[in-house]
Write a structure and sequence with these properties.
The complex is a heterodimer.
Chain A: E1 2-3, E2 6-12, H1 18-42, H2 47-60, H3 62-86, H4 95-113, H5 119-148, H6 152-173, H7 207-224, H8 226-236, H9 238-243, H10 248-272, H11 287-297, H12 302-323, H13 332-353, E3 354-360
Helix pairs in contact in A: 1-13, 2-3, 2-12, 3-7, 3-10, 3-11, 3-12, 4-5, 4-6, 4-10, 4-11, 5-6, 5-10, 7-8, 7-12, 11-12, 11-13, 12-13
Chain B: H1 3-32, H2 40-58, H3 61-85, H4 90-109, H5 135-139, H6 144-162, H7 164-174, H8 176-181, H9 186-212, H10 218-221, H11 225-235, H12 240-262, H13 270-273, H14 276-287, H15 291-297
Helix pairs in contact in B: 1-6, 1-9, 1-11, 1-12, 2-3, 2-4, 2-9, 2-11, 3-4, 3-9, 6-7, 6-12, 11-12, 11-14, 12-14
Classes of the chains: A mainly alpha, B mainly alpha.
Chain lengths: ~375, ~300
Amino acid sequence: MIVGGYRIELEPRLKSPRWLVYVVPVVSLLFAFVVAGIFLLGTGHNPFTTYGKLIDKGYTSYYGITDTLGLATPLICTGLAAAFAFRMNLFNIGEEGQMYLGMIGAAWAGIVLADNLPGVAAVPVVMLSGAAFGALWVLVPAVLRARLGTSEIVSTLLLNYVALNLVNFLIFGSRTLWRDPSPFPDGQLVADSARLDRFGTTNVYPTLLIAAILAVFLWLFMRFSNYGYETSVFADSPNTARYAGMSASRLTVSVLLSSGALAGLAGSMYVVGPAGKVDPGLLQVGLGYAGIVVAALARYNFVAVILTAVLFAGLRVGGAALQISSDPVPIAIATVIQGAVLLFALGGEMFRKNRLRVRRIAGSPVRGAA
Amino acid sequence: MNSNIWLITFADAISIATPLILASLGAMLTERSGVINLGVEGYLLMGAVTAFQLGMGFGNVWLSVFAPILVGVVMALVHGALVISLRANQIVSGLAMVIFGTGLSQFLGKSVEGERRPVSIEPIDFGRLSDIPFIGPVIFGHDPLTYFTWALTIVASLYLNRTRPGLVLRATGDAPATVDAQGVSVTAVRYIHTVVGGALMAFAGSWFMLARGTAWSQESTTNGIGWIALALVVFAAWRPLRAILGAVLFGFTLQVPFTLQAQQINVVAPEMVKMLPYLATLFVLVALSTPRARRLLGAPKMLGIPFVRDER
């Protein structure tokens, strides 16, 4: 871009300063709060008191923190799912649907298998079943992408709507084993052995630890394993990967399946934890879509996903409290902030990787120079 | 079975094709310049909520029709700034706009959730013409936006194929370096078409509130139609006129669940029938991904790739 004899350009940085890695997400978050604040003002809410309440209910009160950690548990998994695929430039945006399938798969194992299993095996089997269902849900888009190059973006997303209707069918439209036999449409509870106890009176389940350990494991695995190396080469340059003899289709399919399995795990954590059944209430929460934002703000770093997931879970918990407060603010404000954060983080990321260079164009008159 | 009901379904399909055509025209123009805008769903919802809220506030139908265009322009400018000027990831930026638009439309629409629509666009009365068998209900009796959309599609087609700016646009998507060498600003061409495209997408959103939905509800307004519009761009091979055909086809799959429900046909559960449009879209996408189809389609060659002049 040329402005008055000066050329303004984005120039790649050879080395981006370490501090920018932390500054960009924090500043994005602040800007997002400002944008959402403008809309709060416009609809007659005081942004400062609203944010004050949001932070209080989401992050500082005892039950606020524990509710946030409880909600963060599946969100860490959907965040990991998105990060796993996005870092290889495979844009799986079907976490939402894969999570529903995880819920269906986990409930199936919890209803049919759990009673026949020794006590300790029930929970792991149920969770793995959910992960498997999640992976299966992305199998078709994954194979299509690897074989025909069909855009995984649109295909995974379309399947979200199919999964949504599938859950509705199982709970409202049919009498399958997922549905409780009572006249009121609700999910059938899984066997007691397939459920975990919460910590005390909180809404935190041991699955939080599993999610956190998984994040650290993935970070180590992708950093030090051969597989992790191959995916990062493939992400940087598919051609280089091919010349080095790596199989593009094997990597594509395996990455997408793992991503689907992680999203499915989020659904099964819901089953072994708070829900204990296929719960249509989960359809309203949007943890799958939020996982994408969580992953992007964490810059697809698995360990950072834990932090950003807790942050966004708090927004949601605080938002839910706002909705029922004396000055009700729609919970959608949490989604507005999410979207805005992602937009700002994207812009900020470019300033981290590049820098603005303003240069005088040769031959143009020098202004203000001695 | 009553054959008349399927004729009405078909006529309704043509009606719901209107936002599909508008949104995919927007996406098409954007993509022809080499920019991907996945945010369609967000633009549709923002257009819809703008039309509805302004209708509630002012009761002026024209304001509700045209104000969403401004909303689309603003959203597209943000997208353009991110992906054209800052060269940010186009896919993530589009997704961010979907999330932002979904949240904001829900936020802004909360106060009027469930309210009846305040203003509407009525179908044009063609008198006796509507009584012509088959042709009558299919061609006549739609709302003015539908006819406007058909006209716009023809204009877009002429623009792309018969005018110089259209040629430049196509070249920008295929060979931006050549356009740049001709002394035309690639950045300007991309900004203009991203903005016009975004305007069309949000404009399409207003249709939902003015001609279809009877009440505002964020969950049941668009239902993924934005994503179907994106698939439609591929189906139409980035050619405006073909979008009409595809939109009617997809519109039919969207309309079938309603018809079956109205006819109390319960052979298949309604939840299963509702999967139809998404599965049909997926199926079409797959069919178009075969190497043979891909050659015939001719996607813009530099789609999604930022242009940097002196790449070293």
